[in-house]
């Protein structure tokens, strides 16, 4: 069982986001702590993807504050969020298919050869492979050899490589969060279980994980807490041990009223 830190890795307070006259997010508060997995649920148009884009720096909120490790941040781009330790794993995974696993895992921080070859920017392939193996072993990931091209991997193996790469970057920052957008959407049962196990291990290593998904069984398998959005507002924020499938579906559809402490005065 992961030990959940008292200081949030990522906190959003009073987040509004307007698209013209449409309010996509309305006063949303959200936080995830190191060692915690928070699942974000909601129907289509509820604001899940929009909230994820605010967290990842793809959209700037119209109002509200973002903090990483207790420090206020102003994300103007996904680069700002990544530099702060907030890593996003998109549904398309953003892997280089023709490159091998080691290259994908060390992308953007590749070691170079020592001496004159390093001055010329020649990469140290052996060091890249050693580092990739060390990172995968730390996450207890059993996948293909690190020399295998990504284009030869299964869907589940690709997802594991993408998750591992981002997990390492969050770990190295010492704060922040790992954001997952529908991580099991295109996977079969066995591959889904592999990804579920990896998410749990990442939390055990002290990584704050946010999972946006429609997959309720995934939430109850990996999450510590569930946050439900409905029409841009947060209607539930509850520990997984204090709710059930019927309650969550009720909040998603609107059949169940918001939690009393989340009811807005203007509703």
TrEMBL record:
Domain of life from the UniProt record: Bacteria
Classification via PROSITE patterns: ABC_TRANSPORTER_1 (PS00211), ABC_TRANSPORTER_2 (PS50893)
Domain ABC transporter: 10-256
InterPro entries listed in its UniProt record: AAA+_ATPase (IPR003593), ABC_carbohydrate_import_ATPase (IPR050107), ABC_transporter-like_ATP-bd (IPR003439), ABC_transporter-like_CS (IPR017871), P-loop_NTPase (IPR027417)
UniProt GO MF annotations: ATP binding
Keyword line: ATP-binding, Nucleotide-binding
Protein name per its UniProtKB record: ATP-binding cassette domain-containing protein
Native source organism of the sequence: Microbacterium deminutum
């Amino acid at each position: 069982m992961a030990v959940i830190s008292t200081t949030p890795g990522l906190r959003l307070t009073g987040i509004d986001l307007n698209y013209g006259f449409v309010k996509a997010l309305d006063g949303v508060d959200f936080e995830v702590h190191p060692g915690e997995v928070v699942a974000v649920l909601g129907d289509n148009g509820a604001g899940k993807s929009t909230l994820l884009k605010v967290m990842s720096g793809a959209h700037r909120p119209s109002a509200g504050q973002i903090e990483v490790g207790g420090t206020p941040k102003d994300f103007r781009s996904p680069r700002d969020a990544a530099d702060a330790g907030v890593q996003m794993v998109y549904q398309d995974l953003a892997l280089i298919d023709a490159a091998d696993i080691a290259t994908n895992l060390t992308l953007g921080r590749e070691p170079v050869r020592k001496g004159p070859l390093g001055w010329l920017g020649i990469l140290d392939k052996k060091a890249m492979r050693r580092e990739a193996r060390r990172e995968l072993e730390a996450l207890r990931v059993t996948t293909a050899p690190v020399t295998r091209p990504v284009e030869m991997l299964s869907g589940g193996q690709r997802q594991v490589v993408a998750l591992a790469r981002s997990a390492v970057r969050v770990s190295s920052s010492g704060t922040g969060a790992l954001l997952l957008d529908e991580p099991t959407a295109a996977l079969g049962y066995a591959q889904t279980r592999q990804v579920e196990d990896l998410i749990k291990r990442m939390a055990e290593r002290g990584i704050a994980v946010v999972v946006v998904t429609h997959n309720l069984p995934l939430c109850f398998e990996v999450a510590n807490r569930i946050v439900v959005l409905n029409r841009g507002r947060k209607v539930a924020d509850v520990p997984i041990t204090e709710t059930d499938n019927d309650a969550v579906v009720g909040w998603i559809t609107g059949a169940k009223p918001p939690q009393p402490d989340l009811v807005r005065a203007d509703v």
